[in-house]
Amino acid sequence: MNTKRLIISSLVLFAFEACQTKNQNSELLSMETFEVPKFRLIETDTFHFNNFVDCNMAEVWIGDTLRIFPGKYGEDPVWGFAEDLKFASGFNADEVFSSPASAYIAPKLPKNASLGQPGLHGAVWFETVYQDQRDTSGKTLYAIYHNENYPETLPFDPETGEGYIDKDWPLGLTERITPAAVCRIGVMKSTDGGWSWVNKGLFLEDKQPRMILKPHNISKTFAGGVGDPSAVAVGEYLYLFFGEYGYPGVYDAQNYDPLVEASGQCISIARISLDDLDDPQGKAKRWDGTGFNAAWDGIGKPVASLQIPVSEGGGPASSPGGGFHWGPSVSWNDYLECWVMLMGRVDGQSWVGDKLYISFNPNRDLGEGTKSQAWTKPQLLVEKPGHVLWYPSLQPLNTAGDIENKYTSLRLGKKARLFFKFSDLGKYMSLYEVEFEN
What we know:
The protein has 438 residues and is mainly beta. Helix content is 10%, strand content 35%. This is DUF4185 domain-containing protein.
């Protein structure tokens, strides 16, 4: 690296960490009276989940029935076409989570569109289900989905700027020579309680100029994009928490800087009006540092307090060493009267990481000022050396109170069951309950 590049990199590092410090100090000033909640893990018998999970657990109460939507659906040239996105139902959390695989039902899902045609491309995972409160039957649902594509399933269209160019494309997750995916976030709608779904369009995406390519992207994760979301409704908006994996600008191999990349990555927030969920594309706004002002496919800023400083091992998503939080799962806690976020941490290639973290935000109104960004520094929740931990979430218990309150992973109380995936074992399970103290 020449002297000029060294000076620029040093300035970027200084600006990145100075920005983090400034933002964190501002949050601390607005949270002076907030005492960070205490929590403890209570070891339980292992609660095995009996079906495929590779995402946040999307769930909803429809009347007295709790319904969950794990799994994957759609075209995938690397892993093969998937038809695992199914639902199970029960009268309480324990019943539905212990459902045998044979009890799951495949809903009617939209077919993948042909190359070059508008519609659903690639594979999808339901990560959150928003229940339209205007429908008293509870059957009108909006699934917020994680969507993955490749240059093969979504080739570049110069007229729209959508899609990807198969040149210098990085390697993906498998040990074979296969391409990395790009993730996007979209919306589907059901009016019959989840038995059938219609694709409504994209919530967020990052386009080709922000993809991080060879020779720099050697993480075996994503080429870029936005994904692994969790969404909560507050007031007139649906707030989306998501992983940000692209370059915060135009990727240029000649002028690439890992510190610039890292400064624009981690967990970010966007929002969309609830009235726009039927036609979402182009309507969402990303947080840009001062407000929800950046375009749905533009460049926003991640939550500074959730980023891992370079001095503590933080780094870009394209690096072999990782160093970023991902996979948020957000819930409102009635007992604490604050938001709770669980997340993973990547510390190596192929999404390797053996730790899960927790963070809190005391501001119910995420739309006021900078309160959506006021998250406490993540604390270690679980560590399993030698394993790879993904998709942590808090889930309701089989108690009269949890059933009466119709708790889900989006709203919980003093105690909750902790689920996460041992990715190295291919198993989704619960070993603990979490009890909070305020």
